[in-house]
Each structure stands twice: as C-alpha cells, then as structure tokens.
Specification:
heterodimer, A: 565 residues, alpha/beta, Rossmann fold, six-stranded parallel β-sheet, 22 helices, 37% helix, globular, B: 190 residues, Alpha-Beta Plaits, 2 domains, five-stranded antiparallel β-sheet, four-stranded antiparallel β-sheet, 24% helix, 35% strand
C-alpha cells in the first residue's frame, strides 16, 4: 500500500521501537508534523531550542541504552542540533537525528533555510544520509538505527527534503540490513585473549581502567568477575563511573586530571593495565608519554581505530566487552595481590581525596554529598561541565549501575538540563538529579519551559558560585589569579523557575541543605534548588596542564596552592 | 620514527559523497594525502581508490583504521609491503621549436613515452610509469620549457596471485553484528 514519506518515516520509527521524539517544528518538516496525529504512540516532546532536543535524545539513550531520536527543521534548526550531535559522537551515544531539508528542486540554490547539514555533520556523525526519494526512506531509517546502536554506538543523521515527506511510495519495512562496509568485530581474537590472560595472571601490580564501553556493553557482571577473580583494583574514567560499584573494596575511583591521587599513583606504578572500553583521552592520561611508564597494556575496545591511537598497546583485543570478558574470565587464575593492596591502601591513606574541608560557609562538595545521603545513591545524576561535574563525580558515590550521565569528550556546558529531561523521560521511575553550574545552566535554561509543559519531574541543583568556576580556577592557579570575564551576575534562578511555573528554593546555609533536598524529593514534579555556595572553592586534586598524572596538586592544605604563571 | 610513503588501496561503495567523507577525514585527523586516484572496478557498484600517504607505520595504520570506519568503505589495505606495481600517468606540454623538436623526440623515445599532440610551437608528451620515471623525464624536459603538466595520482596492484581487495560475491560476514537490546530490560546488575 502506498504511503507518504512522512507516514513511512513514522511507521519505520515505530518498527524500531521508538517511543519518544524530542523535536522542534519548522517549514521543511511541516508535512511530517502534520502526520504525527495519526501516530499517537510516538510521543513528541517539544523542546525550546534544537540543541536541547539533541541533548535530550542523548540523555535518553545513555539512561535507557535505547537509541534516542531528535528532530529539527532545515537550516537553523539543523545547525542548532550540531553541538548535541558532536557531543553524542564523542561519547559514543546512539542517537538518530532527523532533519528536514528544503524541497529537492531547491537543493543547492541557497534557498530559504537551506544548509548542507550532511556536509556539516560529516565529521561528527557515525554516518549520515540525504534521502532523495521516499522509496529509500524505510531502508535508510533501518540502516540508521542499525549503525547507531551496533558496534561503537554513535549518532546518525537523516536529512529529508520537504517534498520527500509528501512523495508517495510503497512501504515495506526491511527485515535486515546489508552493509558490506560495516561489520563490527564482536568477538575478540582467541590468541590475543590468551595472551592477555597470561599477562594478567602473571601481573604483580595490575590495574583495570574501565570506561563507558563496559556500560554500553552491559558487561557489569563480567567486569566484576574479572576484578574479583584476579583481585585487581578497578579505576574508572569519568564516563566509566557507574560501571563498577564504588562501594566495592576493589573500587579505586576515577583517574585523570581530577581523579583520585591514589588511582593515578596506582596507574603510575602498575606493571599490567587492562584498559577496558576506554580510549585514553588526554584528560585521563595526563602527559601521554609519561603515562603508566612501567605497564604493559592490554586494550579491549570494539573500535579498532582506538587501539594504538594515543598510547602504545601490548595486547590489542577488538571486540564487544561482554563477549571478550566472558572468554577472558575463563582463563583467569584466581589469585591475590596482598602486597599490592597493602601499598594501594597506604596511598589511599596518604592521599584522602574525598574530604570536605571545615568551612562555615556552604561548600559545593557538601551539597553533592547531601544529595547522595538523601537519595541513598538511588538516583541518576546528570551533570553539567566544569567544577559541578567534577564534584558530582568525586562526592557522589555511584553504587548503582549506569547512574552518572555527563558530557565527557566534548565537555558541553548546557548538556545537563536537556540530558536530564531525556533521562527522566526514558526512566520515569528513577529519581533524576540535574547538577548544574550557574554558567552552564544558562546555556539551555529555556528547557525549563519544556519541563514545565510536560511536567517532567527532574530535580535540579544549581551549584551557584557566581563564576564560570572551572575557568576561574584555571585563572587562579595558572594565570596569576587574573579573573578575566569569568564573573557572572545573576540572574535570580528562583524567580526564573517560578516564572516558568516550577517550584524552587534558594539555600545559602549548610544547615538548610538536607531539608531542601528532602523537600525537592517529596515534591511531585520538577523542583529547582539554587545553592549559593562558596564562590572560590577549587576542585582538587588537579593535574596541571602539561603535567603527568602523579604531579597533581592536592588539597585540603591551602598553603600549597601557589599561583603558577 | 621513519616516515615512508605508503600505498593504501580501498574498495568503496559507489555512492555520492564517499570521496568527500574520505577527504574530510584526512583533513580532520591531520593526515597528509600525497595523491588519491579513484576509478571503477570489475564490480559495477564498487570503486577502487588508491591513496598515497606519508608517515610512520603507526600513523598510517591509524589512517587505515579511521578510513575503514567510513561505512561505505568495504575494505582497505596497506599494500606497501607487497611491493606493488605502481604507475602514474602524466601529460606534459613542452615548448618546441624546429631546432629542439628532434631532441625532445629522442628523449621521449628513451623513456618509451609518446608524443600525442603536435603544434607549431609545442609537443604534448604522454608518459606512464612510476613516480621516479615521470619525475626524471620531467626534469630532462624542463630545459626546453614546460607549459603545462597534468599528472594522475598513483594506482597500484600487488604482484603475483595476491588480490587483497577481492570480494567474493554472496559471501556473508562471519559474525553478523547484533543490535543492542532495544526491548526494555530488567535493570542492569553488577
């Protein structure tokens, strides 16, 4: 039976199990919006800016493991998605972005709201496609979802001209895809796995560095089995937080620029590192030439291009983490590393990173810790980028699988609020806390209207220090305390929330923090708390730019913080 | 690090935008293309691309892997080690007068190149060979005055029975990738 392109798209999305679309209408997608009432099972959430749609789809994807979908019109609608698409690409998040395009006769004519979005997004998508005929549409959608969610996940963009939405074509949804150039390797090479097992079995000072790949592959149990069987401390990347229980005796926190000093020290002294589903980002490694100088490295990743990209690797294993670890674990000989753990525990005592200093004022770390206490860790934390993000990573304990959602690779301020919307829509039964800074929050503040209109029960904590805090910290430590354009004035976030129709509170006193968080939790629906915190609190430890992981500056001892120039 | 010229050959799907994708990748990852040549293959839907890149082995391997991630790239291999037969084609327009014409023709003959066009004051020379041969002919003719040059990039095939890009038709991938579970699952457990 013949259907219009718009109908074909809707039915294809339903076939792919799509339940929700984050979108914003416009001229080129009007024929699609016109078809939506025929498909009430597709929930459309109207964002206030297309960047919010892309982040929401990303947050939805990370929270649920399903592919998130965002939709925008041609031209400015499409370009507004760009930041969100790049963000999803760097953090391997499965997102399908659909954009309208000017009608095919107008393509290339610089028509109204025309932009070459497939050209623009070429380096920030896993794949993209301009559909020139409605007959192709079902196949392209099938391929897009398949590419987005298999192998190393990532964003796929489908650009559809307005007349293709209106064009009629026969609709049959393809049962399978055939892409001769795309065959992710899912099972590790047996002889490499054997070599890895031998290396791990013989290690005296082994460390596991686990990343987001473990979460994507849902290899939680397999990672835990490996760590416990071989008695290896587990260090995670920022995006790997939530792949291993932080309450576990083998958990050694996060590595990297703001990682635990003892975690970085463990890596520096390791003789074997099992890097699992992580990509040796420069924020994780410090100066790469001095990274883990004594270690032989086993690198397990589904993307062959990640292996050997940044650090030398001794045993490369390309495959899906879960599959690889299943085979690897069989070959691991149970043993202990009593001396190594003795040493690790000593470092942990010497470098207590998780301490909140004595202070009469309200400390941001204290706010995060209280959110942990009140939620008992049973929450999804969605962060912004900067100090709030690092404190959320350090002072909340992630005892629940996949409970931190954060913009890692791109470091996108403004990710927090729309991503929290996506997470809450995808997991309505979970408590979702959005931890924002007062700077980043203003970049996507308009999504408060989306929250209000759809009554999305996100709890928002603004860590308000009146500065672009992380940049200010760098200016303090590395630019002679010259605060250039990092001070922010206002606005009154409580009044803003109320203007959007949301309940909100302001907290200045640390004695009011717990009660405020409890009130937010008890409140049915969204709630915003504006925490006015100590303005010049710093994130420690910090590995200075250009330094190695063990050259971190540590607190709390204010006298050691001398400005570097 | 020893940097050498590497010859990568790729089979790519004949779809719009493929060349753009690959070129964009070179630029974005800061890889240097020496030359690139594209042409049809024995299979109608596939093109063959020969790319010459300069770099150390690790860098070129990184280029290869990144290119392999492009969905339309069916297969890509580095054939440098196979000592392939490599050729390029050049068309040279050389200034020629009555007194120099015969000398030019002699040089062209030595190189087993061809004169493909003659006019009152110029000759067009067609030469095929590896880069060195084309370069040395060019060097010799430079003295007469070169008006214009058109050179193709390198194309290459490994010697002997090796056919690294052979795609057997109807052959299925050994491990069909499984999609992530899309149904709602019970919450993940440690």
């Amino acid at each position: 039976m013949k259907k219009t392109g718009a109908q074909i798209l809707c039915e294809s999305l339903i076939k792919e199990g799509v339940e929700v679309i984050f979108g914003f209408p416009g001229g080129a997608v009007l024929p699609l919006y016109d078809a939506f009432p025929q498909y009430p099972q597709l929930r459309h959430i109207l964002v206030r800016h297309e960047q919010g749609a892309a982040h929401a789809a990303d947050g939805y994807a990370r929270a649920t493991g399903k592919t998130g979908v965002c939709l925008a019109t041609s031209g400015p609608g499409a370009t507004n998605l760009v930041t969100g698409i790049a963000n999803a690409c760097l953090d391997s998040s499965p997102v399908v972005a659909i954009t309208g395009q000017v009608a095919t006769p107008f393509i290339g004519k610089d028509a109204f709201q025309e932009v070459d979005i497939t050209g623009i997004t070429l380096p920030i998508t896993k794949h993209n496609h301009l559909v020139l005929d409605a007959k192709e549409l079902a196949r392209v959608v099938k391929e897009a979802f398949y590419i987005a969610q298999t192998g190393r996940p990532g964003p796929v963009l489908i650009d559809i001209p307005r007349d293709v939405f209106q064009q009629e074509a026969e609709f049959t949804y393809p049962g399978k895809v055939s892409l001769s150039g795309y065959k992710p390797t899912l099972f590790g090479h047996p002889s490499q796995i054997k070599r890895a097992a031998g290396m791990i079995n013989g290690a005296e000072h082994p460390v596991i560095i686990a990343g987001r790949g473990v979460i994507i592959s849902k290899a939680f149990a397999e990672l835990r089995e490996l760590a416990e069987k071989a008695q290896i401390p587990v260090v995670t990347t920022l995006l790997g937080i939530g792949c291993f229980p932080e309450a576990h005796v083998l958990s050694f926190g996060m590595l990297g620029m703001h990682g635990m000093a003892y975690a970085n020290k463990a890596i520096d002294n390791a003789d074997v590192i099992a890097a699992i589903g992580m990509r040796f980002d420069d924020r994780a490694t410090g100066v790469v030439s001095a990274f883990a100088p004594q270690a032989r490295i086993v690198h397990i990743d589904i993307d062959p291009a990640e292996i050997g990209k940044n650090v030398r690797v001794d045993v490369p294993i390309v495959g899906d983490i879960k599959n690889v670890l299943e085979v690897l674990n069989e070959q691991i000989i149970p043993r202990d590393h009593i001396e190594w753990f003795h040493q690790l525990d000593q470092w942990r005592r010497e470098h207590p990173a998780i301490e909140i200093r004595e202070c009469e004022g309200l400390l941001p770390q204290y706010v995060i810790r209280q959110i942990y206490e009140v939620t008992q860790g049973d929450a999804i934390i969605v962060t912004g980028v900067g100090q709030n993000q690092m404190w959320a990573a350090q002072f909340f304990f992630y005892d629940k699988p996949n409970s931190l959602i954060s913009s890692g690779g791109l470091g996108t301020m403004g990710f927090e609020l729309p991503a929290a919307i996506g997470a809450k829509v995808g997991c309505p039964d979970e408590t979702v806390w959005c931890i924002a800074g007062d700077g980043g929050f203003q970049m996507t503040i308009q999504e408060l209207a989306t929250i209000a209109q759809e009554n999305i029960a996100v709890k928002i904590a603004i860590i308000n220090n009146g500065y672009l805090g992380m940049v200010r910290q760098w200016q303090e430590l590395f630019y002679g305390r010259r605060y250039v354009h990092t001070q922010l004035s206002g606005p009154d976030f409580v009044k803003i929330a109320e203007a959007y129709g949301l309940a909100a509170l302001r907290v200045r006193d640390k004695r009011e923090v717990t009660a405020a968080i409890e009130k937010a939790m008890e409140h049915q629906g969204p709630f915003l708390i504006d925490f006015i915190v100590e303005p010049e609190e710093n994130v420690f430890p910090i590995v200075p730019p250009g330094a190695t992981l063990v050259e971190a500056l540590e607190l709390p001892r204010p006298e050691i913080v001398t400005p570097l120039t | 690090m020893v940097t050498t010229k590497h010859t990568l050959v790729a089979l790519v799907e004949d779809k719009p935008g493929v060349l753009n994708r690959m070129a964009s990748l070179f630029r974005r990852r800061n890889f240097n293309i020496e030359s690139i040549a594209v042409g049809h293959t024995e299979q109608p839907s596939l093109s063959r691309m020969t790319v010459v890149v300069e770099g150390d082995n690790a860098k070129v391997e990184q280029v290869r892997k990144q290119l392999d991630k492009v969905i339309e790239v069916v297969k890509i291999v580095d054939i440098t080690e196979d000592e392939p037969v490599a050729r390029e084609l050049a068309l040279l327009k050389v200034k020629a007068t009555a007194s120099t014409r015969s000398e030019i023709i002699q040089i062209v003959d030595i190189f087993r190149a061809n004169i493909v066009d003659v006019s009152a004051d110029s000759l067009m020379v067609e030469v095929t060979g590896d880069e060195e041969k084309v370069d040395s002919l060019l060097e010799l003719l430079r003295g007469f005055g070169i008006r214009e040059i058109a050179r193709t990039g390198r194309i290459a095939l490994p010697r002997g029975g090796i056919a690294p890009l052979l795609v057997e038709e109807g052959k299925k991938p050994k491990q069909p990738p499984k999609p992530l579970p899309s149904e709602a699952e019970s919450p993940p457990n440690w």
